[in-house]
Amino acid sequence: MTADVVRLLQTMMNIRRFEEKAAEMYARGKIHGFLHLYIGQEAVATGAIAAVRDNDYLVTHYREHGHALARGLDPKAVMAELFGKATGVTGGRGGSMHLFDVEKSFMGGYAIVAGHMPLACGLALAEQYRGTDRIAVNFIGDGAVNEGEFHESLNLASVWKLPVLFIVENNLYGMGTDIRRVSAVTEIYKRAEAYAIPAEQVDGMDALAVFEVTARAAQRVRSGGGPHFLEMICYRFRGHSMADPEFYRSKDEVERWRRLDPIVKLRDRLIGEGVITSDDVVHMQAEADRLAEEAARFAEESPAPAVETLHDFVYKERA
Amino acid sequence: MAVITYREALRQALRYQVQNDERVFLMGEDIGAYGGSYAVTKGFLEEFGERRVKDTPIAESVVVGAGIGAAMAGLKPMVELMTINFSLLAIDQIVNNASKLYYMSNGQISVPLVVRMAGGAGSQLGAQHSHSLESWYAHVPGIKVAVPATPYDAKGLLMTAFDDENPVIFIEHTALYASKGEVPEEPYRVPFGEAELYREGRDVTLIGYSGSVHQAFRAAERLAGEGIEAEVLNLRTLRPLDIEGILASVRKTHRAVVVEDDWKFGGFAGEIVAIVQEEAFDDLDAPVLRCSGADVPMPYAGALEQAALPQEDGIIELVKTIV
Fold this sequence. Notes:
The structure holds two protein chains of two kinds.
Chain A: H1 5-27, H2 42-50, E1 57-60, H3 65-71, H4 75-83, E2 106-109, H5 117-130, E3 136-141, H6 148-159, E4 164-170, E5 173-174, E6 177-178, H7 179-182, H8 189-193, E7 199-203, H9 207-225, E8 228-233, H10 251-258, H11 262-272, H12 278-301
Parallel strand pairs in A: 1-2, 1-3, 3-4, 4-8, 7-8
Antiparallel strand pairs in A: 5-6
Helix pairs in contact in A: 1-2, 1-3, 1-11, 1-12, 2-3, 2-9, 4-12
Chain B: E1 2-5, H1 6-20, E2 24-28, H2 44-48, E3 53-55, H3 60-72, E4 76-83, H4 84-87, H5 91-98, H6 101-104, E5 114-119, H7 134-138, E6 144-146, H8 151-163, E7 168-173, E8 180-183, E9 196-199, E10 204-208, H9 212-225, E11 230-234, E12 237-239, H10 243-253, E13 256-263, H11 268-280, E14 289-293, H12 302-308, H13 312-322
């Protein structure tokens, strides 16, 4: 499997611009509640999701706009969901932290830390039961690794050889708490070894590295090798949510990581290798701007969900 | 009609489901090689194999969560949690995921999952194995809660649970597994949300579910000897709740006592009392009363445990204050 490198860059640029637009809309009072931006971590979702099949299940955490866009969810419907509009991916019922698109095997963003890991195991179990080669890809944050459900899930996945690929996005902070202050073992991939799951640490600021390692790991999981575990070292450039004053980390530290910007890294590499030109980058940026602009306009112009639908979808009736 | 135990009735429903629906598989702690802690699945592993009958680690959260995930993928898993006490370790999965995925996903995902567990007390199992927490689950929209009182209910409600497209918390009573009753051999369904008129009466309605139906019935039989005819309702499911059935009976008798193993404070009987006074205030000749479990953690010693549970004497005493 080889990466479509230009597409990787375009996807990362689209996510970045989408998130900047979302921040702007939040500041303008168009988006409410918690808004967790993916800016800085784009290489992880982009590289990993490009490296698996379109129908492999994705089960993600609540910082999941990037994963949704990388999987190909319509940016207009995602932005409309952030706005709480009827045209959103879940009609305004889910919001930023709960995006779903089952037709794209995007099985949801979840807001209870580690609480979605058992679901990924269950989706994988269903495919094992049916005898298909479809796998589940489960994104978690470093904050999840001290939860009981993390350990229960790794153990079950390993003992039943479930086709699930765990990807930890280790951005060094669980909300505002430095991982070193709360984790006895900070090299997270080593924890998977306790459950006999092969594990690797990856530079999560490098989309190509993410792609290559994920493609290899997914192949192994798909061929019946049982679960695999990847720790992506990355960094979020913005606060935990829009409400975060960032007292817990220094501006210097943020600045150091910003110099490792995954978009700049891939862009410069592709220009250096002659794959694209600076002019191409201008066009690509214009495309990202256009998509974000179009998404915001669509969201703005969409209707709010009808209050009469409040009680829809509590219980499913038999067909 | 054959007379069989509550346990055997459950077995019949589960065997039927595994035999007739390829999407159904069973998983839980010690349901396979051990045969189930209440022997409901005894012999299933040998009969159906490990693909359909899975012994799990003691890890309630991932076991229920994996059941939810498999249901999301279109299968129909049954998870057995041994007891409601252990379900507390999985309550995040039940409340945060199972109950609201259909809603949060705007109808894209449904969770047709059956979670079985034993609840109630009366077997001297001590405070950590003797809970009646069904009101916690019944509190949550998106979940259905079944509470069978008889072998007939056990089989028919479990059959219905597997037909449902939603998560069903199926709470059996720890003291009823060996109880016996008439059960048809062929498959049948007991609909959710339809209470059973367990005993007809005219003077007062005794409302019970699961184990408390039997206390209420015994109290009613004794009251009949004193010329008081109590009607006994067996709720069968707490969600959906047969509100119309309850109101119809209360409109006939004008008096009611709710009987439950649960603690009174914040318990399910309080909900029934509230609904009756909201909907049928003018039909009442007396306040609706509750005969609940004592407000203590369940003690071990037999005499203390019996004192902590609703008994016939207590029900009769309450009835006489309003009739």
